[in-house]
Amino acid sequence: MGWTELLVIGVVALIVVGPKDLPVLFRNMGRFAGKARGMAREFSRAMEDAADASGVKEATDSLRGLSNPAKYGLDKVKEATDFTKWEPGSNTAKLAEERAEKAKKIHAASADKAAKRREAEAAAAAEAAQTDAQPDTPVRADPPAAGASQAEAQPDAQPDTETSKTGDKA
C-alpha cells in the first residue's frame, strides 16, 4: 500500500473511531499484525520440516549437484581442452602438425588456381580488346528500311519539289 492509501485509512479510522480511542486501535492492530507474522513464520518452518522429512531436501540437493560439472566428469573435459598443458611430442601434436601442413598445401593450391584464373581472364580480356580494335570487315551503313522513300534511300539525289496544279511552289 502507498502512503496515500494509508493516509485515507487513517482519516477514515479517525472519523469512525474518534481521536480518543485511535491509539488503542493502532496498538491492537500492531499486535494482530505481529501475531499474523509469527503464525506465518511458524507455518513456513512446519512446511520446511515436512519437506525435509519427505526427502524433498535431498531431491533439491541432487538437482543442485546436477549443475556441478565435477560430478559428471566435465572437469576432465575441461582438462582435455586446456591448451596451456600442451605437450609438443604427443600424438595430438603430431596430428595437429600434419593438419597444419595439409591446410597450407590446400591454401597454396587454391591461391595458384586463383592466380591462373586471373591470368586467363586477363588474357581473354586483352584478346577481346585487340579484336575490337582491329575489325575484320569494313563497316557498312545499314540498308534503308522497307518503307523509306527513294530520296531517303539515295542521299545524293535531289528531292523533287512539289508544285501545285497552278504552278505555285508549296
From TrEMBL:
Annotated region (Disordered), positions in chain: 96-170
InterPro entries: TatA/B/E, TatB
Gene3D superfamilies given in the database record: 1.20.5.3310
Transmembrane segments: none
MF term (GO), any: protein transmembrane transporter activity
Membrane topology of the entry: Single-pass membrane protein
GO cellular component: membrane
Localization of this protein: Membrane
Gene Ontology biological process terms in this record: protein transport by the Tat complex
Keywords tagged on the record: Cell membrane, Membrane, Protein transport, Translocation, Transmembrane, Transmembrane helix, Transport
Protein name, per record: Preprotein translocase subunit TatB
